[in-house]
Amino acid sequence: MRGLEQLRLAVDDSTACEDLLLSSDIGVSIVAIEDDEPVDAVVVTDPTADVEFDAPVICYADCDPESVPRPERFDAFIRRGDGASLETQLRWLVARSTHTADNLTRLRRLYEGSSRLIAAETTDELFERTIDIADRILAFDNSSISIDVGDGFRIRSTRGDFDEDDRIPYDAGLLGETYRTGESRLINDIRTDETAAPHDPEYRSVISVPVGDIGVFQAISTEVGAFDEMDHHLAELLVSYVAETAARIESEKALRESRSRVEALHRGTIDLAAVTDLGELFDRTVAVADEILSFDMSYIGVVKDGLIVPAAMSKRFPEDGAEPLSVEDGSVAADVYQTGKTRLVEDMDEADDANPVKDAYRSGLSVAIGDFAVFQAAAYTPRAFDEADAELTELLMAHVAVTAERIRAEENLREERDRSTALFEHVSDAAVAYEVDDESGVACIQSVNNAFEEQFGRRDIDIIGDDLLAEIVPDSERDPPELCVADGERHRSEVQRLADGQTREFILNVVPLDPNAADGVGYALYTDITERKQRESELERQNQRLEEFANIVSHDLRNPLAVAQGHLELAREVNREESFDAVADALDQMEELIDDLLSLARQGEVVGETTAVDVGAIARRAWDTVETADGTLKISSATMDADTERLAELFGNLFRNSVEHNDGDAGVTVRVGPLDDGFYVEDDGSGIAADRREVVFEPGETTGDDGIGYGLAIVSRIAEAHGWSVAVTESAAGGARFEFRVE
């Protein structure tokens, strides 16, 4: 307020009041309550404090006046934090401290009358009371309040000759200037003011005061100089009460309306949650938007094949008011779908990407529904929607998206169940539907198909509710895979199951009914592979025999043949009888080996009948069949149960290995000797590196230039056929040592 002296304010808590008063247009200086200086008013934040001041005392605290000891000590009670009421009270004190007794009477009556203003529950009631106070207390014969209604001012209350249905433009003279500038005016003679454009040419003086940001209060007289500064100050004080009360009423009204809309929206979403059809869901959604959010025109567009296609429209939406839109055309709806961000278009003419289907649309609201649809509301007037509308619509569409996802999931589940049921009934493999009980862990049979009945000899009607695992799983199997369905897992494996009294081989497929739910409900499909497994086993045995046959032929026949060829050449040159004998022996050995191979090929046996044999004698015999160069064989006697011919093959391969892998100039020395439970063969050759001892028995593994890598593999195979283990270590001389033990 202009023209008032600076107010000196004593407070007991400067922090509590200072921030509230800094933005005030009252000149206030704050002093401590303990200072012994004259003050205009005192603010106390402690309602229990003793107060003895000549100046008015305001209790500024969170308390109920009735609970305060001796409340008459205070001139006013203001709730702590209510800066507007504190400022109003101080304004009154400032005015009271600067005027005469007559004016103080008007001021006191105005202050008393303000309680009626503050008690108003609607703005209409507030404005009526304001005009009444201006008339009775301030003696303003002709006063009015003009309120901004969006397309100009409307006179809400008056004692003059105005028509309340009239619209006054925003640029109308002093009224428009006061509203635009927010500054109050006192004009003693309108004829001298360029901005004044009175409604009646007889008007001469006026007080014009802005009412917050909602309108303007004016007191008008046909007399020149009808108002003075005190009238002006009182009008400002009155209007400050009005502005604060109007703001409070509108805030409370907006809060009530918002709460009411949210509660209604909550009830609407509960109804939507019970819908089981997408079409019905979209129809109900636009109905809720129409009824609860008060949207006159709205529709939902569902994205299909790159287009946003209208799926539901409100009753008042024009039939031609929406059309399919491309998700790539850059429209508002396309942008909302692409980004998922809500768009509030206050004026279509001002939005570059707004291209409404109808030119009459002036504002709109677009909200995404999940990733599959867009909600749009339209209006024929600009700024028909605000942020509150956007927030409530987002809340509604979030519920719609969740419900739509649930409906689509249920539809997919029903379709999947239908397909599963059809497949279950017509699948050629044995199938059972079952459920795993959470507490007992029992897989209870729900139904079986015809193939199951035939394969397992169990009729559907006889085993419903029975324990599936007890019916068909052998006692030896632990943790049957059928239980995987309890965790919602798929499973595939080869298993053995009891089928009509026999243990047979199956491929088991465990399929949960709902892959996303660990509810223990699912299917088990059993594909009988018993005959196939038998054929595979027989084929594997045949392949092993063929491989062994080829390996032995290529490897074990080579050396006797080489011996025979060598001695034959020598016999031709020198005609030595001994060479012919050696050739004959080699040929005999080859004949015996061929006989054994034929026997192996026919019978699939690596080792024939075993007897107790002299290991040393067999070793000496094998040594004589090997090209040993300058090698030496040393034997310590040992006895083993063995097949003589296969044991000779074993020694022959070991001896060839020692000779062929000897890197020294001297001939290799090979020793054969007994162990507690077997025998050993070792040499003083190059030995076998530690990192290769695990692989030397693999077929094809060789380090020589002329070997084919089957010698030690045959050794291992013959030992295994005898029931012996074989291990490679290092001999005392640093060569290779093979130890054979009975397992």
UniProtKB/TrEMBL annotation:
Q: Which domain of life is it from?
A: Archaea
SUPFAM superfamilies linked: ATPase domain of HSP90 chaperone/DNA topoisomerase II/histidine kinase, GAF domain-like, Homodimeric domain of signal transducing histidine kinase, PYP-like sensor domain (PAS domain)
EC number from the UniProt entry: 2.7.13.3
| Gene3D superfamilies from the UniProt entry | 1.10.287.130, 3.30.450.40, Histidine kinase-like ATPase, C-terminal domain (3.30.565.10), PAS domain (3.30.450.20)
What is this enzyme's class at the first EC digit? transferase
As its record notes, the protein acts as a catalyst of:
ATP + protein L-histidine = ADP + protein N-phospho-L-histidine
Q: Which GO terms describe its molecular function?
A: phosphorelay sensor kinase activity
**Domain Histidine kinase positions:** 552-743
Print the keywords alphabetically.
Kinase, Transferase, Two-component regulatory system
Task: Give one Pfam family.
Answer: HisKA
Whether Kinase counts among this entry's keywords is: yes
Name under which the protein is recorded:
histidine kinase
Q: Which organism is it from?
A: Halogeometricum borinquense (strain ATCC 700274 / DSM 11551 / JCM 10706 / KCTC 4070 / PR3)
